[in-house]
């Protein structure tokens, strides 16, 4: 993440979001990596107050790390590339939150992003987070408000909300109306999408590690050790201490049977047309109440403690690691959607969601391990029962899997009490009542389908006699990576190249003859494609001389494909391409600078129809489409970066 | 055959007995040493001299071929009567050449190698080869590895895969059209057995199924029929032998293809992401359903300009103007090639947005 | 892509000057164009989901732009009030668009320096010597802050952050005033007005000599202050020593 192009990109992102001052500070730090205030001032050529204010704001936004040295007491600043990079993912994250937890949750998330980190108590004061349809005096006359009010009356006593619109006034008038804020924060915390801010998060990982090591070494029990034992103990202690210091997990106590409180059910129960529409984006009940008519219902009443608001003193920020897990699951699901029926994909979604709740981050290692050195990493096993519970009852599971044997209506494994028609769909349709066992079997069958090659999206595990399902993360992450590379190869060099690369990947190093036999390609095509791919850096040639003279005629040439290396260079290219798109966007904006400034005028904004001419409106629309496309392209490239760096 | 005195007749007799015994009890490739032949108990008292007389007589009749076995010991192989007939009609030179060619079996032999091994002059050798070829005893073959070398082998033999490169080579050149025809046929055949064709009732229902961005519903919407997958553990997918038979019966191949060749092709299809091998290649399943296979195959000959393959959709890199930009490496802000002066962004934006 | 899509889409610089175009067989010695012809790929139209994502990104970005932190280096007229940036602003004055105009009052104002006031900061997350003075103007270097939370432009507020469980333990240990946060800050202000001035002078010195940093800094005091204030057990969640540097 410290390459030239990554630095360039992060600086651009900082500039795009926060302006030139931040960008100047950031790029100076990217350039010099670690600077004291005075050196930073020197190199950035900023005034004292620019720099001090800038730095303070950037610390607030987690864009830089700071560390005050033990030795000289001087504070050093470093760029926080990770945080800066995640600026590009904000749209994706907010869209995901909206999809998962509703519009209001997305607003809360974006407010937290806007603030960098914030105390719950401060969030309470923000007008932006008050329910949209409430008026500022806290009256709850209108109907929507009332409904929520009724559901939350129990909470009022605990809630101390400041209703000052500007958030600056410290009067403590208890709010008259309840707010969605606390349940939403709890849901976000329960899902792990936000975490508690810890002091150590403001220092870089290296600084934290060194600090932790130092403290461990000072411990008397460690001091007594020697040699290898000492090393091991220090290592272990350091990691433990680091984990403890950086840990901002908020999910504890907010999970119930592996599901966060406030998590909506995957499906809306009771509605007849449920399978045909996208699951509701609002919260649905987590309880087992199948008759809940109101999908919007909050279920918190069931758990006494959940009506307790979040502690106002907790400082929270976005948990990007966890969101990467969720976004990665989304990619897995997309993989399933490509080849499987929508029903199977939906079952997979249920499994993945259960897994997401209990997965904190994508990987244990900071770097993606090299191919072949990567161990297996299975997700938590999710019991089949749990998945069955989550799958929409109205989803027609049986109709989307063919029969085990054609033309022989048999009872599979004797488990099915119903006769099947020849076509395997003769039994209970969407509206029929299905027995539990049957349902379990069907869900299992869909999960089995997913476990098949080529993707092996799931794997079955027996845990103390119970069927559970897991996902092998590393295998799938690798699959995603390879797919991205293969897409590039196919697009650049054609399907012949793709075949060649897949052969090489599967078989290792091969000479031309063997390669031809397996790929069944004419020599001419084969050589041409290998040569162009070599130029592009996708395949490479190893020379194995057969004698000391190393004459070409006495040399064996072996072709090979090293996905690790290709990945790294593609990753750099992706950073660079993202930068170029952003730079172009800047350039395009400058082309239209006068016009865009006009549209941003406070009188024009929001009243475009009134102030702008027809032509100007068209121009504005075109500009927005252009900007969306370029930003969308950046987001698509980010998708690749995620696959190659984060998943 | 005119060996001394009284033993003459018996040598011939013994010899033919010996030949019969070898022919009937041993495979045609068996190498016989002296003690093997004595062990047959035909030559009385293990009389070595007598045995040698017998074998010599058989060699003269072209029924035995004299060879040098291990440790320079003498050894013999039997020759079928038919071949013996042929050989009897050859001149000594021709016979010599024939034997050399014969010795290389299905691999064939390079003309120059025959020359060195027989020690014959080139013109004589050429004449011999011509005459043998004329009698249809030998044929010239094409070796994929050494396309420029003139090689010969016995007319009755099929060249080994080393020589031909396998069933997929015609005259030493990879027969792309043939491969594509058979591969297409196989993919479709596998596909038909890989998907369950649900009755049309399902179409309606499946269409209503929620999908993500519509991406997953392509299958349902583009085809009349609805195909659904078989459950895991389904055993009805085609095997190599089933497919080999199907290909050979289909009439698309002029020669009978072996299972090995078909496996080769199946592997290739797997590398193309078209098929998936199940249980270690015991069975094969197609990735696309028959309808989709038909569509993509129909599109193929349509030309160079076919759209993006639906399997591997593009990603951020391939569709960005930078993705395959020829001067990407030179590009730097403020440089001669720069994002500001880039000439590719405008057409790119225009292409996608239409203005 | 077709087989060998490479042929179509990806030409090396100069590849379009094929020998065939030139029957005389003479090599074309024209310089390679900066932008050789190349068929740009077609981008898929954005999906609904992607559009939503982009809109979220733009909305957040706009929030940042309208927020207190967005600052430009040459803020022009809007920032010319600031003396520090004034000189530069005059130099780069744009005679066409720089003049104040009626519609200018609607023009988006641009900041030259992030505005830090208007929201609370949690002091312990910031490096003390360099930044406390900007997020909490009442802070005097060398004095111990009572609360960690600085709230600016905001009247004293008793309710709130010092109740944070993380800081509960610290309340008892507070050295000087033992009062609550913001008020404590202001008390400092009243008690040590000299420090404020001194600090400002030092601040000015920075402009000329960046290496003479830290005139206000006293390493020993730094550590003493830290230790006294929080002791080894520091924050309940701190996990022991080694954290002093973060205050």
From TrEMBL, chain A:
Annotated protein name in UniProt: DNA-directed RNA polymerase III subunit RPC3
Q: What does this protein do?
A: DNA-dependent RNA polymerase catalyzes the transcription of DNA into RNA using the four ribonucleoside triphosphates as substrates. Specific core component of RNA polymerase III which synthesizes small RNAs, such as 5S rRNA and tRNAs.
Top-level lineage group: Eukaryota
Q: Where is the RNA polymerase III subunit RPC82-related helix-turn-helix domain?
A: 8-64
Q: Which GO terms describe its molecular function?
A: single-stranded DNA binding
Q: What is the lineage of its organism?
A: Eukaryota, Fungi, Dikarya, Ascomycota, Pezizomycotina
UniProt domain RNA polymerase III Rpc82 C -terminal: residue ranges: 188-480
What InterPro entries does this protein map onto?
POLR3C_WHD, RNA_pol_III_RPC82-rel_HTH, RNA_pol_III_Rpc82_C, RPC3, WH-like_DNA-bd_sf
Q: Which family does it belong to?
A: Belongs to the RNA polymerase beta chain family.
- Compositional bias of kind Basic and acidic residues: 152-161
From TrEMBL, chain B:
Q: Where in the cell is it found?
A: Nucleus
- Location, primary (coarse class): nucleus
Q: Name one Pfam family in it.
A: RNA_pol_Rpc34
Decide whether keyword Transcription is in the record: yes
Region (Disordered) spans which residues?
A: 288-311
Q: Which Gene3D superfamilies match?
A: Winged helix-like DNA-binding domain superfamily/Winged helix DNA-binding domain
Q: Does the keyword Plastid apply?
A: no
Report one GO cellular component: RNA polymerase III complex
What name appears for this protein in its UniProt entry?
A: DNA-directed RNA polymerase III subunit RPC6
Q: Which organism is it from?
A: Aspergillus coremiiformis
Source taxonomy: Eukaryota, Fungi, Dikarya, Ascomycota, Pezizomycotina
UniProtKB/TrEMBL annotation, chain C:
Q: Which GO terms describe its biological process?
A: transcription by RNA polymerase III
Instruction: Spell out the InterPro entries in the cross-references.
Output: RNA_pol_III_Rpc31
The answer to whether UniProt assigns keyword Nucleus to this entry is yes
Q: Recite the UniProt keywords alphabetically.
A: DNA-directed RNA polymerase, Nucleus, Transcription
Q: Disordered: where is this region?
A: 1-44, 156-247
* Keyword field contains Transmembrane helix: no
Provide one Gene Ontology cellular component: RNA polymerase III complex
Places the protein is found: Nucleus
Name the residue ranges with Basic residues bias.
Answer: 1-11
Listed Acidic residues bias regions: 179-214, 225-235
Q: How does it assemble?
A: Component of the RNA polymerase III (Pol III) complex.
Q: What does this protein do?
A: DNA-dependent RNA polymerase catalyzes the transcription of DNA into RNA using the four ribonucleoside triphosphates as substrates. Specific peripheric component of RNA polymerase III which synthesizes small RNAs, such as 5S rRNA and tRNAs.
Q: Which family does it belong to?
A: Belongs to the eukaryotic RPC7 RNA polymerase subunit family.
- Kindly provide the name given to this protein in its UniProt entry: DNA-directed RNA polymerase III subunit
